[in-house]
Here is the input.
Amino acid sequence: MFAEPTEDEARALAHKASFASRWLEPKLRDSLAAKGAYAFKHRVKAWGEIRRKAIRRRVGLDRINDAAGFRIVTLFQDDIPDVVNALIDLVRSAPVPDASAEGWFVDDGIAEVEIHSSRRADDPLSIVHRTRSIIDAKGIKDKLGDDQFSSYSSVHLILKVEFKEDS
Here is the structure.
């Protein structure tokens, strides 16, 4: 049964998302994945947006995985698989957390990968085949969701992060 999230619960998630954004933003912005990108953007959803989305979808806040988001924009679709490869390497090379760590990736850091393409998978210009090959080679094929047709091409990496509550 669906229980509508309270304002306090949504505010708490927005606070966590804000911290995650502050912790991840410099790591991603300065990464090999973002070098040469056309643009790097990030945002944190306001608590009211988070709550409305949960209510609209009739899901708990634990199912909202985009409270904080980052976008690395490339000029060419062909660059997307290289960015995905570099992002996976960045997440996997993160240091093991110690007592001084403010935040860290959980497990292998990657919860899910979604490929959105404006081209059919059998189109030679599609990002699907090359991106799937990278994901398979990295051993995270089990994290791959269904390919989705879209008006633009993108890959969404849903990352798992934790951080100290007192940060």
Observations:
- The beta strands are 39-44, 68-73, 103-117, 148-149, 154-163.
- The chain has a mean pLDDT of 90.
